[in-house]
Amino acid sequence: MDDQLRSRLGLPVLENDRAAVPAAEATATDIESEPEIAGTTVLYVSREDVEQGRLESYLREFKKYEKKRLQSRVVLIFTGYENDRREVYQVREITNWVDRLLKNVPHLFYFLSRENYAMRIAFFCLSEVVGRSGVEVSITKEQGRRLIEKVTKSAVLYAKKMKVSPAGQWKLAEDILDELGYGQTLQ
Hints:
mainly alpha, two-stranded parallel sheet, 8 helices, 4 strands, 46% helix, globular
């Protein structure tokens, strides 16, 4: 990761020029984390709540997740759309709801898991999808790069507030950048 991106994301410079060392190479003792929590936490979001624009109970859930420090453990599942042929990110009500959720929980990607594509689905809900071929989804590179940097920076700033170690902040950032395909926005 270059210094400009590190700076834009608010990542600390690691001791002994460790900024050049990917977080994946950090040892377990370098990364402060909660004791392993088996599996993920699933937050079911009903179609009725999406269509009515209800966020309050979900915001309360995220407050609980903050207390439990559920970093990278939350999966959003939208119920009531099982017979809808559209993808989640193609349903305007869902994309509007996710956008409002991000405005209220700007560090949302701190919580989202890579499991079940939870992070990608939320990302595509926030993006302007310009095409799709099979499982491949296309967005404009510039818009994707800006959005990925924005959600990563918010997650890192929140991790810093939660006193996650510098190496842990790097790992979080690299996980988000990798999952959301940041490298593809540079090509």
